[in-house]
Every structure is written in C-alpha cells, then in structure tokens.
Amino acid sequence: MKYLLIVCFLFQLSSLSASAQEFKYHTVEAGETVYSIAKSYNVSEEAIYKYNPDAKANSLEVSSKLVIPLSEKEKVSAENEDVQFITHTVKRKETLYRLSKDYNVEIDEIKRFNKHLYSEELRRGEEILIPQRKEGATNTEIASSENLEIPATDKPQTSETREHVVLPKETKYGIARKYGLTVKELEELNPKVEVLQPGVMIRVGTDVLDEPVILTDEVFEFYEVKAKETLFGLSRKFDVPQDSLISLNPALEDGLKTGMVLKVPNTGEGEGNLEAGETEELKSDAEDDSNISLDLSEKLDNFNTKELVVLLPYSLNKIDSDSTSSYKDAILDDRVLRISLDFYSGVLMAVEKAKELGISTRLRTYDTRRNVQDVTNLINSNDFTNVDAVIGPLLQNTIEATASKLTQYNVPVISPLSNREMRSYQNLFQSRPTDEILKNAMFNYLEKNAGGKNVIIIADGAKNQVKNELTQILPNSRVILPSDNYLSAEKIEAQLSGTQENWVILESSNVGLLSSATSALNRLARNHEIKLFTTERNSGYEDDNVDNEHLGRLNFHYPSVDKEYDTASSEEFIEAYKEEFDMIPNQYVIRGYDLTLDVLLRLASAENLYNSFEKHTGFTEYHENKFHYTPKRNGGFYNDAVYIMSLDEELNLKVVNDQQSNLYREFKD
C-alpha cells in the first residue's frame, strides 16, 4: 500500500500523461532477483542493468528501488523531435525543481534525457542536458538563447507580479507558498516590508495555488520539522526524492528550518504530526537552534559513572623508557607528542571539573602510535562494549579506522582536532569545523550584513572559485583581479566609494599580494571608510611581511573555530592549571578541556550522547570553543559552530556574529 501511494505521488508531480512515461520505480521485495523482476516487466536483464549499474543479481537490497524501462524501444533521437539541448553544470544547492523553473521545463522532461536522475540526486559539478523546444516548433513557446540565460545571482526571477493585501494572521511562509514563491523571493520583491501587517499591500507572483494552504487528504498530510532534521533525513522518512519534497514545498528552496510545516505523502503510518484543521500560525524565519545558547550544567540528571576512552598518538614505543632525558628530548623534538600531552592535560582538568559537578568518570587512555593497525589491535584486545564515548585519535586515517571498528558497538567517536572532510560513519562526530564550514559561515555573515555597503572582492587566480561564489551571493560587488601578486593603491582607489562604507574581501594565500593589498588599503583608509574581510585566515596572514597594525586599522574580519579566552572569566581555570602544571594553558590544553567537558555534560544530561541532541537543542560554549552538532547527510555529525572574529586598532579580538553568546562563566554547584 505504501509503495502504491508513493508511486501515485511521484506521477502526480509530473505534468506528462501516464502513456508518455517510459520508466517507473520498482521496490525490491524479499527473494526477488534481477531475472525475476525483468521477467515480471517483460524486459531484459540487460535493460535493467543499463539503468541500474549497481544492481547485482545476488545482492539486491530489500526495499531498494530500481528504475524499470517500460519499453525497450530505442530512445527517440533529438533530431526526430522538436527538441534542442542546453548543457548545464550543476551548482551548489541546485535542485531539479529550481532548474525546472529556471529553464521552464518539467522535472520529468529533465529526467527523461538524464536517466540517472530517476534514481540519483543532482551532484555539484556534473553536466546534464536541459531539453528546450526548437524554434519553429508548433504549440510551444519559443525560447531564445538570451531568454535562457541564468541571472548572475543564480536565482529564479519573477517576471510578472500582482498585488496582495495582507490579511490577519497571514505569514510570509503562507503567502510565498500560495503564490508559488520561496520566502526569499517574496522578501526580494518587497525589500522594505520587514514585518507583515494586516492591510499592507505587497507584491507577489501570479502563480496562485488553487488549494488552501493547509489541506490534507488521503494522499497528503502535513509534518512540522523538528530540530536537527535534514532534507535528506525527511526524504528517507517519507520515502520520496528530495526534489519531489521541494516541488510540494517551494519554501524549501530557502532552506529547511525548524518549525516549518511541510506537505508530505501520506504513508498511512501516522508520521504526519499536524491535524487537518490546524491553522497556519507559522514563522517564516523559524528559530534556528544554532543561535540558542545552552548551559548543560543546569540539566544534569544522569549520574552513572561515565566510561571515557582517549586515544592519542604518543608513540611512546619510540622513546627510551630508562632515560629521563629521552622523554625530554622527545617532547621537544616531536610536535605531535607535545600537542597530545597538552590536549590530554586539558582532558584531565575537564574530568576534575565534571567531578565537582557530581559526574564521576572512569578514564582510560591508549597510545595509537599514529598507526591504523595499532588502533585496530588495541580495540580488538580491549573491551569497548560499555564505553560511552571515545575522544580521538588526532589523525584522519586513525580516526576513521576507530569509527569504523566501533560502529559494531555504536560507540560515539569524537574527532578532536582534524578539520579535514571525513568518511561518513554513523558514530563519528567531527568536533572541529572544516574549512568549507568556515567559508560558508563568512558567506552567511556577508550576505546578511553587506547590504548598503560598497563591496570589493580582491582575489588571485588560485581563489577563482571562491570569487565566483562571492559574486553569486553579492551580485552588486566589484571585482579586482591583481596581476603578478601585487596590487597598487591606485587600482583599489578606483573602486572605492567616498559616501558608502567599503567592505573589501581579500582572497589569497600569497604573502606578496596580502602584504601589498593590506598596505595599500591601510593608506587609503585615511580618506575612506574601509573594513577588510576574508573567508580564510591562512598562514599568509601570519607572515612578518603582513603588518598586524594594518589589519587592526582595517578592522579585519575572519571566520574562526575558536576565540581567545577572556582572562577575567577564565581566571579560576587558568590558576588551577598553573597550580597543577606550572604553566599557562595553550590552545590545545583549552581544546582538550572544552571538548571533554562538553562530552561529559552531554552524557550526564541525557541517556547517551546521541540522545542528548534530541533532548537539548542549541549550542554549548566554554572557554574558547563552542559546539553545535548537525547530522551529516550520509551519517555521523559535524560541528558547524563558527565564530566571526574582528580585530580592532588595539589588536583586540572580539566575536561579531554571536550576540546571544555570553563569555564563559564557571559552572556553579
């Protein structure tokens, strides 16, 4: 019954008649083979393998889907139809729904000439064919190549509009949905309308839904999005492709948000959570839990002893255990060993702090020796069945090996320091945001705050992709392309505004360009209002040729994983560390402390680490680090909590993107 409902739902999204369909989905049942399926549809096995290359007769997964060609006739060639094609390269966050709107073509027509899209999602960077009717074709609107150009902002444009008078209790979400717009498109049509008021006249599209905004029947129901849910997860929950969900819910083009109400297929299993008569009391900007500060010390209710394992690459087997000088030399010569020891000292401080809060911990630590085989051996030779969490190792290959090995016990593995994109394991938590997450955080900050500013992008050839992404989100920006890794003040001044604040985004890792650009901007700042930004503060900014005083005068903004701890609010921790280890804690010490305390508090405020994210929403923050874990598309979690830092003329750093975040305060008993 569920399969029939979904098939009906998929076909309902297509404007083509049933007789025009060339393919259908088949849900694999227990005991079926490619041979039996081919026989039931009167097609050859080769035809099924053609459109399902991963299918193998002895390894079909129950409930997986196969694309079945209903006819083995050769595909009609484009020459025999009134069709021509545009080759489109898929961009970030693009969907079939958006492409169908951009090119004025049905989703199923796109799939028809790109067969893999019947069973796969769009992939960034791939090229697909977009069918368009040839000029001179009858009964169709002729589209010239000029009409088919995608705007520089990469957003669908609403060419025709009408007026709408806002009624009581109407929301942006409901109005956007009613007129076939996304919330973002509605806001772009009405840039001066910040809050909807009854009686206000706004501009809307002309594509009006015939049905009421809230309508349930036997085919559809409504579902309110919960915290931490993803579009990928919802597509699996309701067994429907992501682009089909977007087709039913245009507001998803503006992103999935907690509290949104989605129209979804009625699976008959009661997964919808809104009653048919409910009114649309929705917020178009549903509250994002990543902006909610969470103090877990006030939510402790699980005081069972925590089983914590720390895996670090000490490589003690390489040190002469009979010689004290050997230990000292190894610590001085081996940076990874120093980082491991600093990190572990922070772990010990966190365990002591948790003890003060009533949380007892049984702590074990093992030496990974920076070797995958050693990691595998120590897991095989020790009992991990009752471990609540594993922190470490530090290196990517050993982290992935640990997560893979411990999936059998569903033990959470927290990667403490690596910022590389990792394989997806259900139990892997990447606590340090990747460079891509940092970049996107700055993109979001610029997109929200650059309005009314004269934006100038300076990027060398190595940063061409970032430049292109910036011009998409900031379409009115000006671009300067430096030559020979040098930039003169005259070239910059020609793009500066004397009346607006100038926001200069500098994208390069070349020291020569960074030095010449910041020096020139520093001189020009005497007569112009200039702020400097970058999506990546790389090692080039640390070079002696790049003057920190210049960066301070330019109020330099950049994304960061951590912030500098506040001496006053962290005084107790600093003094305790100095008393224990006779030195000031460095960033690795504090990282070890912040991460470990966060893990222990999460374990003590919920049944387990996984349950803590369902039970408590928001971000946690400590001395230098904050944590907000988001599910990865293919499994596992990543931390997307990022600081946008700014430098002032006195070279003091402050957080500029986190108004709700308070400086760390010591937990009270």
Automatic annotation (TrEMBL):
Keywords for the protein's UniProt record, in alphabetical order: Signal
Annotated signal peptide: 1-20
UniProt xrefs under Pfam families: LysM, Peripla_BP_6
Domain (LysM): residue spans on this chain: 24-68, 86-130, 221-264
InterPro entries referenced in this protein's UniProt entry, alphabetically: Leu-bd, LysM, LysM_dom_sf, Peripla_BP_I
One example GO MF annotation: lytic endotransglycosylase activity
Source domain of life: Bacteria
Family assignment from sequence similarity: Belongs to the leucine-binding protein family.
Protein name, per record: Amino acid/amide ABC transporter substrate-binding protein, HAAT family
Native organism: Salegentibacter salegens
